[in-house]
Amino acid sequence: MHLRRLLLCLLVTGGTANAAETENLAALNAEAQIAHGKRNLGDSTPLYKKLLAADPPAPPTAAQRDLVQRFAPRLHNVAGEFFPLKDIVAILHPERPIIGYHLFWEDDLGFPSDNDPCDHEVVWVEYDRASLRVTRVATYFHGRIVSTPEAVEEANAHGGRPWIGVEWGYHGSVPWKAVGQVTVVDEILRGHWERARPGGKGHPADPLARGWPREYPRDYAAYLDFALPFDPRPLLRERELVYVSRWANATINRYCLRYNFAAKTEWP
Questions:
Q1: What range does the domain containing 31 cover?
Q2: I need a labelling partner for 169 at 20 to 30 A (CA). Which of 19, 49, 62, 252 fits?
Q3: What is the tens place of the pLDDT at every residue in 140-150?
Q4: Helix, strand, coil: what percent of the chain each, to 5?
Q5: Of 182, 138, 164, 2, residue with least CA distance to 85
Q6: 68 CB neighbour count, 10 Å cutoff
Q7: Same domain as 115, residue 184
Q8: Is 56 left (phi over 0), alpha (psi -120 to 50) or beta?
Q9: Is residue 268 part of a domain?
Q10: Last residue of a domain, one of 18, 35, 54
Q11: How many domains does one find in the chain?
Q12: What is the DSSP string of 83-132?
C-alpha cells in the first residue's frame, strides 16, 4: 500500500497496524542503506525495490519542476578544479517544503579506490509555501549538516537560489558565510589544504588515481576563493532527474543513476 494512503488510513482509523506498516517502510529503508553503505548493492538494491514498490516516487508536476529551477543552487568552484559535475538529481519531499539537490562529481581526490565512481554531495533548500522565500539552506559537509542564517538572506537576495562554494578536489558544499563562522568547516578545509599543498602529507599513490592532481599548488587564501560560478540548471533540464519521494537514496539508485554512489543523509 502506498505510504500516503497509509497515512490517510491512520488519520481515519487511528489504527496501529497502519502505523506499524509505516514504521516497517522506514526500517526497510534503514536496512537498505546499511547495505548500501557497505557497497553491497546485491543486498541493498532488492530492498530498495521492495521499498519503492510500496511507496513509489512520483513524477513532479509542472509547478514542482518550476520550484526545482527556482531554488537551484548557484555553485562556485575554485580555480583549477579537476573533477566535473557529471550528474544532478533533485528530490522533492512529498510533505515538507524542502528540495534536496544531489550533486555527483566525477570523483573525490581522497578516495580513488572506494568503488564509488563519483562523489555524492547534497544541498537542501527549505522554503515557505506561501511566500516562496527560502527559510533554510543546509549542506552535507563531510558527514555533518551545515547551515548559516546568512545563507538564507543571501539566497533570498538572489531570487531564492543559494550560493554554494565547492571545495577543490573534495567537493564539500560550503554555504554562504560558513567559512570563518562554522568551526568544523574551517577545520576540515584547513586540514584538506594542509594535506594537498606542496610539501603536505598528500595521498598514498594509487593506480586508479593516474592522471589526477597530486597536490594543490596555491596558498590557503586561493583554496578558499570560490570564484568560478557554475550554473547546474542546464544539467537539471538536460538530465530531467527530478522526483517526489521521501526515499532519496532508493529513488536515485532505482530511477536515476546506473552507477554506484555513496548513500548520504536523505533529509536534514
A1: 3-54
A2: 252
A3: 999 999 999 99
A4: 40, 20, 40
A5: 164
A6: 19
A7: yes
A8: beta
A9: no
A10: 54
A11: 2
A12: SPEEEEEEEE-SSSSEEEEEEEES--TT-TTSS-SSEEEEEEEEE-TTT-
